[in-house]
Amino acid sequence: MKEFEFRLEPLLNLRKQEEKNIQKELMKLRKNYNELQEQLEEYKSDKGNWQQKLAQEQEKGINSTTLVKYHNYIEYLNEQIKETKLEMDYWREKIEECQDRLLAKVKERKKLSKLKERQAEEHWEKFLQEERKQTDEVATNNYNHNQDNSSGSII
């Protein structure tokens, strides 16, 4: 009996490669998202520090020009925080889309893998069945041969 060959092996390999590619894409998207998250934390921390400095300066007494500069910079940080959050929302959506595509590819690959396993098992069962059949034939031929020889020697 010939060796098992899965006819859809090229398709299975393609699905595996597509899955790997999507995983790489997902890693890049998460990296972008994490970088934005770090940037957001820096902006928030920076804003808190500047607000604290402003409060300290106000206790000492601050001129209006410096006060405006502090408020303008804090407002700039607020805008950066808003923009970063919007960017994070965009990347989060891209991540979710990529995860959905990955899940679909994983399901496709698993279906093909299960089909391959099932066909390999069927192939193995057929092989065992043929082996048993051949063994039975040999045993039957030996038995018949022995019967023929034993009945001929009695006469």
From TrEMBL:
Q: How does this protein lie in the membrane? A: Peripheral membrane protein
| Coiled-coil region list | 12-101
On whether Coiled coil is a keyword of this UniProt record, the answer is: yes
Tell me, which GO biological process terms does this entry list?
bacterial-type flagellum organization; bacterial-type flagellum-dependent cell motility; chemotaxis; protein transport
**Alphabetized InterPro entries for the sequence:** Flag_assembly_chemotaxis_eff, Flagell_FliJ, FliJ
Q: For the region Disordered, what residue ranges are annotated?
A: 131-155
Any one GO cellular component localisation term in the record: bacterial-type flagellum
UniProt keywords (A-Z) are: Bacterial flagellum biogenesis, Bacterial flagellum protein export, Cell membrane, Cell projection, Chemotaxis, Cilium, Coiled coil, Flagellum, Membrane, Protein transport, Transport
Q: Which cell locations does it reside in?
A: Cell membrane
Q: Where is the composition biased (Polar residues)?
A: 137-155
**Pfam families, from UniProt?**
FliJ
User: Do you know which PANTHER family this protein is assigned to?
Assistant: FLAGELLAR FLIJ PROTEIN
Concerning its family, UniProt says: Belongs to the FliJ family.
Name of the protein in question: Flagellar FliJ protein
**From which source organism is this entry?**
Halanaerobacter jeridensis
